[in-house]
UniProtKB/TrEMBL annotation:
Protein name, as recorded: Xylose isomerase-like TIM barrel
GO molecular function term, any single one: isomerase activity
One Pfam family from the record: AP_endonuc_2
Domain Xylose isomerase-like TIM barrel per the UniProt entry, residue ranges: 73-289
Organism this protein belongs to: Gimesia chilikensis
Keyword line: Isomerase
Domain of life: Bacteria
Record-linked Gene3D superfamilies: Divalent-metal-dependent TIM barrel enzymes
Length: 301
């Protein structure tokens, strides 16, 4: 990447590609806004069977002190299809594989967070039979300028995308509060410039509510969205109690307009992808409540 005279970040490849992107990016993005995207936005096309979004929780949300196998059995009993494991989670991979095989509950992805070295995470996702690695793309602050972070994060992803493609794993960038990729238009451009079928978006519904509307992001990002994080946000709590307090509200009790979210997901064809809760976990009773709330939010029951 390089910087134009106006200060905008532009690709540093050959002139013809740069010119092509400049001429077509506005048209492509406008198309994603002005008309619903037809077809599939998740991982599998609808083959005529009843379409259903698959439901999961982050593995670290399971707080009961029980064996790995019993945790997976509990998830199955509660209606969850899968889980995701964070790179910091202390768990025996062999025990996880046994639990997957015994219960059918999948580890659909691996959480890399903001680590620069992605190969290990790709290998972990592959070992568990997952399909993705969640990536947090850097952070912009006083010491890390926006344009520099943009170039650095694309370079990191480009380094690992060929290996991810070979392994059949997608590298999915999440929208988080890192002062970066602050609009769906920019996030779409960031992903498109990577020019890889293994690059996509892990869209966090709740993270947008503070400054935007999730259904708008969903329609603009369209088929770039491969998976969803599910949580809530309350603008009233943000105003009265503080910025981060906005997340301290249960799914379906905040300011996320779930009917609009469901409609937007239908509009882009997201009917069989993964939706993973990212909220405060707990014991069996707590996870049961999360399962039921996800059913209501996404109309899965």
């Amino acid at each position: 990447m390089s910087q134009s005279e106006s200060g905008n970040v532009i690709p540093s490849n050959e002139t013809t590609r740069r010119t092509f992107l400049q001429q077509t990016s506005a048209t492509l993005l406008a198309g994603s806004i002005l008309q619903p995207l037809a077809g599939f936005a998740g991982e599998e096309k609808n083959s005529g069977k009843q379409a259903r979004i698959k439901k999961a929780v982050k593995y670290q949300m399971i707080t009961e002190k029980i064996p790995v196998m019993d945790k997976f059995k509990m998830l199955k009993d509660l209606g969850f299809d899968g889980t995701e494991i964070h790179y910091r989670t202390k768990v025996d991979p062999k025990e996880v594989r046994k639990a997957i095989d015994a219960t059918g509950v999948q580890v659909h992805g691996f959480l890399n967070s903001s680590r620069d070295e992605l190969k290990d995470s790709i290998d972990q996702a592959k070992y568990y039979g997952g399909t993705s690695v969640l990536v947090v793309a850097g952070r912009v602050d006083q010491d890390n300028p926006y344009d520099v972070v943009y170039k650095q994060q694309q370079a990191k992803l480009r380094k690992h995308l060929p290996y991810a493609e070979k392994q059949g794993i997608k590298l999915l960038v999440e929208n988080v509060w890192n002062n970066f990729l602050l609009s769906p238009l920019e996030m779409a451009r960031f992903i498109d410039e990577l020019e890889s079928p293994a690059a996509g978006v892990y869209f966090d519904v709740g993270n947008v509510v503070r400054f935007g509307w999730p259904d708008q992001w969903i329609r603009i990002l369209g088929p770039r969205i491969v998976k969803l994080d599910i949580k809530e946000y309350s603008r009233a709590k943000q105003k009265d109690e503080g910025l981060w307090k906005g997340f301290q509200v249960e799914i379906t009790e905040g300011d996320c307009n779930w009917p609009e979210v469901r409609q937007a997901l239908m509009d882009i064809g997201f009917t069989q992808g993964w939706a993973t809760a990212e909220v405060k976990g707990g014991d069996r009773q707590r996870l049961q409540d999360i399962s039921e709330r996800m059913d209501r939010a996404l109309d899965l029951a």
